[in-house]
Specification:
300 residues; Nucleotidyltransferase, domain 5; 11 strands; two-stranded antiparallel sheet
C-alpha cells in the first residue's frame, strides 16, 4: 500500500511512500501509518490537501464507501474506507476499486488521453478492468461493471476464480503460471523451471523455448477472444493493456492482432487502437489522484 501527494497543476506525483501489506494486514494499523506519513508531509508543506483519492485493491462498494470483499486482505472486509480517511483529514474523499481508478488514470494522464471510450485491463497478477464510456466511468447496476476476467472463453482452463475456462485463467500472471505448470507436466523438453512464473514463461518464449511459446500463444488467443467480445459489444476507441502487455508486447501483439482479425468485426477493429499502459509503477498513485480530481469536479 502507498500514500502519495499529487500536484494537479503539474500532473505529477510529488512524493510517495510505500508500505508492505499481506493477508495479516490490519486495516486500522495500516491506516494509521498512511495517515501519519501524509500528516507529516502536510505539516512540511503548510497547506492541507484539497481532497483525498483512494484506489482500493479489493471489491469495493462506491455507494457505502466500504470494502465488501478482499480475499487476499481478509481483515479489510467491511472496512469503511471513505469514512475513515474523511475523519482523518476533514476534506472530501473519493474511492474506487483499483481497476476503475487505473482506468481513469490512463484515460486522463496516460494511453487513453483524448478518447471518450476507453477500456483498461490490468493484465497483471489478475485481470481486472475499468470502462470509460461516453467520457464517464461506467459502473453498471451492481457497481461491478468491468469484471472482464470472469468471462468464460473455454470449456476448461486454470480456475483462478474458481471458474474453469474464465479469461483470467488464461490472461493473467496467475493463469499463465498455471498454464506453464500444466505444459511442463507433459514431459517435453523445456527450460521452464518446476513451478514457473509468468515471467519465466515469457523469458523462455523469448529465448525460443517451444513449450513456453505454446503457452504464450494459448494465453494470447484467449485474450484476443475476450477483447473481440469487448470490441463488438462496446466499440471502444482504445483498449489499454497493463503490466504483462507492457513488458511483452513484442511477443503478444502479432498473435493478438491476428486473433482479433479472426474474431471481431472489421469495423470495430478499425475504430480501436490497442495500446500499452503508460503510467507504469505510478499508476496507483495517478489513479487515486484522478479520483480526487474528478470527484471534486463532480465527474465521478
Amino acid at each position: 500500500m502507498a500514500v502519495s501527494i499529487f500536484d494537479v497543476t503539474l500532473a505529477a506525483v510529488e512524493r510517495v511512500e510505500r508500505f508492505p501489506s499481506g493477508a495479516d494486514c490490519d486495516p486500522q494499523e495500516m491506516v494509521e501509518q498512511l495517515v501519519a506519513a501524509a500528516r507529516e508531509w502536510i505539516k512540511e508543506k503548510g497547506t492541507a490537501p484539497e481532497a483525498v483519492g483512494i484506489s482500493v485493491g479489493a471489491v469495493y462498494d462506491w455507494v457505502t464507501g466500504c470494502v465488501t470483499d478482499a480475499p487476499h486482505l481478509p481483515k479489510w472486509k467491511g472496512f469503511p474506507v471513505v469514512a475513515t480517511f474523511k475523519e482523518a483529514f476533514g476534506v472530501p474523499v473519493f474511492a474506487e476499486n483499483d481497476a476503475n481508478a487505473c482506468a481513469l488514470a490512463e484515460w486522463r494522464h496516460g494511453a487513453g488521453q483524448g478518447c471518450d471510450h476507453v477500456i483498461f485491463l490490468t493484465f497483471g497478477t489478475g485481470l481486472g478492468a475499468g470502462l470509460i464510456l461516453n467520457g464517464r466511468l461506467y459502473r453498471g447496476a451492481s457497481g461491478l461493471a468491468g469484471e472482464v476476467g470472469a468471462m468464460r472463453v473455454a470449456e476448461s482452463g486454470p480456475a483462478v476464480r474458481d471458474k474453469p475456462g474464465c479469461l483470467e485463467g488464461f490472461a493473467s500472471g496467475a493463469g499463465i503460471a498455471r498454464l506453464g505448470v500444466a505444459a511442463r507436466e507433459q514431459d517435453r523438453e523445456t527450460v521452464l523451471p518446476e513451478n514457473p512464473t509468468a515471467k519465466d514463461v515469457f523469458v523462455a518464449a523469448e529465448a525460443g523455448d517451444a513449450v513456453a511459446i505454446e503457452v504464450v500463444q494459448e494465453s494470447t488467443e484467449k485474450l484476443g477472444q475476450g477483447l473481440a467480445t469487448l470490441l463488438d459489444v462496446l466499440s471502444p476507441e482504445r483498449i489499454v493493456l497493463g503490466s504483462i502487455f507492457v513488458r511483452a508486447e513484442s511477443l503478444i501483439r502479432p498473435l493478438l492482432e491476428e486473433t482479433l482479425k479472426r474474431e471481431a468485426m472489421a469495423e470495430t477493429i478499425a475504430a480501436c487502437q490497442i495500446a500499452p499502459a503508460e503510467l507504469g509503477e505510478s499508476i496507483g498513485d495517478f489513479g487515486a489522484a484522478t479520483l480526487a480530481e474528478l470527484g471534486l469536479a463532480g465527474k465521478l
